[in-house]
Amino acid sequence: MTTRFRRRTALGALLLLSALALPAAAQAPAQPTPAQAAPAQAAPGGWAPDRPVRVIVPGAPGSGADTAARAVAQRMAEFTRATIVVENQAGGGGVVGILSAARARPDGLTLLAAVSGVLLGPLIDRSLPYDAGRDLAAVSQFHRTAVVLMVTNATPARTLAEFAALVRGAPGQFNMGNFGYGSSSHLISEMIAKRAGGLQWQTVPFQSSPPLIRDMLAGHICCGVSDIGSAREMLRDRMLRPLAVSGAARSEALPEVPTLSEQGVPGLEVAIWQGMFAPAGTPAPILEYWGRAVAHAVRQPELVRLFRDIGAEPVGNTPSEFNAYLGEQRALWQQIVDETGIRIQ
What we know:
Layout: E1 3-5, H1 7-14, E2 53-57, H2 64-80, E3 84-88, H3 95-102, E4 110-115, H4 117-124, H5 132-135, E5 136-145, E6 147-152, H6 160-169, E7 175-178, H7 184-195, E8 202-205, H8 209-217, E9 223-227, H9 228-236, E10 240-245, E11 272-279, H10 284-298, H11 301-309, E12 313-314, H12 319-340, E13 342-344
Parallel strand pairs: 1-13, 2-3, 2-4, 7-8, 7-9
Antiparallel strand pairs: 4-11, 5-11, 5-12, 6-9, 6-10
Helix pairs in contact: 2-10, 4-12, 7-12
């Protein structure tokens, strides 16, 4: 059965990391460093930007995604000696900023700092006027993280198998929270229900992870799927209990928690992430130039700390590696969308 939701409600959920909580010390947006008097440092192939470069963030200033993008842009500017200006273009659940970048000239002077919703959005909303694989070129990934299935301490389950047995014993009686209609949290929870033996629960959507966590702590719902960063403190202090994480490997933020696939629920080796893109058609030497700049930026100790504080791991892959990763993730998400039948209209 196909499930459809209204676009206005769901588009914002696709930009998960925009709402992802950063530590208090990181909330003040970092402004990119202006170029030095010397010209921008050229790539081995000879290309270097000769004008200011825009990094478009498809969301409002002050969000988690914006803060991370500004921190990366600042280190990129220092590494390349280019003038890099972060430009927020909010609207349409991120579509305005994404389209602005996709339609820019592929000359290396416009970049897009986007989250994983840029890939998932067109899969669940076929009316969106862009396709990441067609309209954007991969540069490099900033970081990636996972989602975590968790329960309250009052719920007598310590493994996914024990939780599934509880739900089977009381079909439709458990409330499963997620951080938004059509979000990765929603899709993954529905896939767990299907692949763990046809579990039945009541789906409870929230606007983001923090209110979901608050309702779990208050005892209003027993279980939910959250991004790791928002829940990490509560999990660390044992105020909530993690049962499983998504992804191909265990999260370094929660190394003791097994993956879903380890517990017999395959096909959920998906992640949530943020990365840099350029307009489709941007020449490979330019993509590689900016890819090296991103890789340098995300490996700086202060950015490593920033990302790990939100339960994420820095990546800094090459354009070809990032492009291959996007292809793998797209195939996994497409299968999940097809199997759950979740769509936005």
